[in-house]
Amino acid sequence: MKNDTLSNLQARRLALVAQGFGNPKREGIANWTRIDQAVRRMNLLQIDSVNVLVRSHYLPVFARAGHYSHDTLDQRTFGRRKRRFFEYWAHEASFLPLELYPLLRWKMERALDNKGEHRFLEKFGREQKAYVDEVRDFVKANGPTAVSDLPDPGGRTGNWWGWNKGKIALEYLFHTGEVTAATRRVFERLYDLPERVLPPETLNTPSVPEADAVRRLIDLSAQSLGVASEADLRDYFRLPVDAFKQALPSLVEDGTLLPVKVEGWTIKAFRHRDTGAPRKAGANTLLSPFDPLVWERSRAERLFGFRYRIEIYTPGPKRVYGYYVLPFLEGDQLTARFCLKADRQAGILRVNAAHGEDGFDAVRTAAAAAPELRRMAGWLGLADVEAAPHGSLAKALRQALKRS
Question: pLDDT tens digits for 275-290?
Fold first, then answer.
């Protein structure tokens, strides 16, 4: 593989290997080591509140590590003694390895200086300083705090999803790093002081200066992406444009990022210097809508020719594929998409619609997907899989499920 030119297939394989789909071990029950390896390939888990199937941050680990206990990940996310992650705004709200905490303190410092990415919160922090001080003092005195625990949370507003002033104040303090997520109750974030949540070795590690931190975050993004455009690299940790543009040239100059041309791409691309030349990559697995492999929709289209949009907020009659749709990775291609729902009362994983992509063999794709749907059902504690007769792949899938 030449350094300056990649076929689309080579680029796709680089991306898959970088994301942990080189030769993933998914058989049996995954232990913590396998879970940890999967997360470290991605460097973060994006959080989302929709729970029609399962919370989204569990899905990327399942896609790479196979069947594992939710409790194992929960203990490492929120456990007092075994904690390995912290929560912060990275690629949206995310769980990140504790080792990245010093690399994100500059974001917190920018927010304190009113130069952060959430200007609405910073404006509130300035204009409502006395109230923010009261909220900070309440958390300090009372420990893990939900918005509903505050003595004066205020009424709902028209800003930021209708947040009340208590939620805005806590989010401002979270944004600036003065509080962090101690745990979540159902899905509601509980806030506490970092020194009561995070390990001392994490808090005592010196902050990394902004310029160095941004360089390191771009480096990590490139390692997790394999091959990427400038926009892909910046989007991974949602880096500010100014800091990104200052850091990128030096990473090219020192050889960390190697400029490449990718077949079919009209934009500049880079690969990380540590990427190899994989002859094979991929897996048969279902992907969260918020999986790093597909969360940047234009990138999924460039790599896989897969046009993907979230239809959660689209009115039902206008949806094309369904409410909560998971792409299906078959080998090194995205060949189908399934609208899934965990019917916990009935103990069934419902495939409300199954759509195959043009140009792929429906029978083969259905045969590959059926055992993965059953694997997911087992992981979620559901006894069976039922497919509705909706979508171009539905007939083949229903037949494959009977055989699997």
Answer: 988 888 999 999 999 9
